[in-house]
Amino acid sequence: MRFKFIAAALIASSALSAPAFAQDAAPFTGPRAEAVVGWDRVEDSAANGGHRDGVVYGGQIGYDFQAGSAVIGVEGEATGATTRARDTSVLVAGDSLRVKAGRDLYVGARVGFTVGDKALIYAKGGYTNAGFNTRYTTGTTTVTSKDNADGWRLGAGAEVKLTDKIYAKAEYRYSKYDDNSSGVDAKRHQVLGGVGVRF
What is the topology classification, in CATH, of domain 27-198? Predict the structure, then answer.
């Protein structure tokens, strides 16, 4: 009877310690959430081939799975931006055109590899849908439009664990919107940092 009790205790102890061992062996496995902020540049035909700069900000959620030194994951993100510009080079004197970047939604995947126990280098890619708000004023008449453009995104970055659950990251990404239905033809460069928590 005593032997059975000891055996049961050992089995229960092993079962309880297995998740902790798996977490130690794969520190980049699990769900995560983060806040991001950084530099945003949009280049598009509406601005006469020019560009405009601003600040991008928002949040991201994701889930990663680590196998050895390889890490694969899925993620979704929602951001806004302060990026806007006026263009008068192709307009009638006195008219004005303002283009502002709106919200941006992204869903995609990332693949990377660990460097030691605390760092991750990764590449990412996926689908993005961005809003662009245009306002054209001529005399006392103002015409506004809100366009949503489909596109794709590629990027790369590095993530470093600050504690067992808190991490910081730096990332560059390039997005291309070429949407015939909305008439938007734009490119987007972003460099940002983020702080997140892994659950």
Answer: Porin (2.40.160)
How far, in Å, are 75, 103, 150, 151, 191 from residue 131 at the CA level? 20, 5, 9, 11, 19
pLDDT at 86 over 50: yes
Beta bridge partners of 132: 101, 147
Do the beta carbons of residue 42 and residue 188 sit within 8 Å? yes
SS3 per-residue string spanning 155-182: EEEEEEECCCCEEEEEEEEEEEEEECCC
pLDDT digit string, tens, across residues 151-193 = 999 999 999 999 999 999 999 999 999 866 656 788 999 999 9
Chain centroid offset of residue 82 CA: 16
For the chain, give every domain's residue range.
27-198
Phi, psi of 40, rounded to the nearest 5 degrees: -130, 130
In angstroms, rounded to a whole number, what is the distance separating the alpha carbons of residues 108 and 82?
Answer: 24
Separation CA 48–CA 44 (nearest Å): 7
